[in-house]
Amino acid sequence: MDRRKSNGACGWLVAFLGPKGIRHQLSAIVLGLAIAALAGAACSCTGGSASTAPSGNAPLQRGTVHVAIEETLDGEPTEQNVATQLVTRALVLHGYTPVADPSQARFLIEGKNTSTFFQDLKFRVLGQETHLEFQYEGEMSATVTDTTLASGAAGRTETIEVPRERYGRTDGELAERDIRRLVASSATIKLMRTKLLGDARVIALLDELNDPNGRRSFNDIQRDIVAVGYPAVPYLLAALTDERVVQAKGEYPGLGADNRDRLCYYHIADRALGDILRRESYLALDSEEGYRIRVITGWTWVWEDAQGIPSEHRTLAHKRETRVAADEMQSRQPETKRGTVEIPTINPQVTPAGAKEKEGAEGE
User: Sorting pLDDT into bands at 50, 70 and 90, what band is 57?
Assistant: First the structure.
């Protein structure tokens, strides 16, 4: 088996989690790997960034970026560069425009994703050996550079590191692919939390949901997230996979003293997305896991359409014409407020959340 020929299908997940949510971070990545496997759409990118710009009318535009991540498996370059695919996908969702020419980019992301075969894990019973899984180890480092700052200037560069991780699958080719996905997903989380690429407001607000001693309710935190507007959307999409229980207090439909452990980050993310993008998913405390996965896809499709994201970076693009991810998800009535927070339409010409809309502006 040639380990370099494993499937490099584009994963969609960019998990966003606080530093205290390590166990949930891993479960979120695993969920993302499962959904990525459903997508089954391989990107053509192998080395540096492809020039795949979002729509010029995209509501979120954060500048140009060039990605140059070297990826090796057992010392040899991979045919499908999974790290470049995942990082580029995340950047596009966050409103960055990938460019092929590094001289045209404001931000440069350079790094290396390295994976190696560790062992064929077996166990012996009554003198007979049985194969369990092929195990691989991987690690990654990357540097972000803001080219608008002078060489040597404070804050011009940031570096992230993903320590060596181990992962195994019964199927060797899947093990080769998924160790690269796992490490690259961990790296992407860290990249989108850097000062250069991330949004400190949203990061701090989502972290605040995990504070049981905070003075503010999760309703207040949610309203502040909505007030940020479109820059919060990519983080909220990723938070839809976050299964941590919300520690802040507050009010939520169906929530009581006997089931407070049912309210997770993904519930708050779903309601904030509804306020920003003016849609309803009807996700509830008792919604089944299968429905939540469909809701994740539905929200992702709404944002991809709004941003005009290129087809090679879209989620389950081959299913867009034949099915709806969340059957019950529908446009909200043309209101302008929900509670005390201004709500934008998804029309890029309308001002984002937190800014006052013009009188008589039509909703979707």
Answer: confident
Determine how many CB atoms are found less than 10 A away from the CB of residue 290: 8
Let me know the angle formed at the C-alpha of 159 by 20 and 266, rounded to the nearest 5 degrees: 35
From the centroid of its chain, how far is CA 131? 34
12 and 53 housed in the same domain: yes
Half-sphere exposure of 270 (CA within 13 A, CB side): 27
Q: Hey, how many other C-beta atoms are within 10 angstroms of the C-beta on 202?
A: 22
Mind listing the pLDDT tens digit for each residue in 72-89?
A: 999 999 999 999 999 999
Cα pseudo-dihedral 288, 311, 201, 269, rounded to 10? -10
Residue 152 belongs to a domain with what CATH number? 3.30.160
Q: Which of 13-22, 119-128, 154-163, 315-324 has the highest mean pLDDT?
A: 154-163
pTM of the predicted model, to two decimals? 0.77
The token pair at 106 is 């404001």
- Cα–Cα distance, 183 to 202 (Å, whole number): 24
pLDDT digit string, tens, across residues 264-293 = 999 999 999 999 999 999 999 999 999 999
Strands (E) across the chain are located at 63-73, 76-77, 96-98, 107-125, 128-146, 157-169, 279-280, 330-331, 337-338, 341-342
3-state class (DSSP) for residue 18 = coil
My answer on whether 132 and 206 are in the same domain is: no
**What is the domain extent for residue 71?**
3-198
Quick check: is 351 in a domain?
no
Residue partners of 224: CB distance under 8 A and separation at least 6:
205
Pairing of strands 128-146, 107-125: antiparallel
Q: Are 214 and 248 in contact (CB under 8 A)?
A: yes
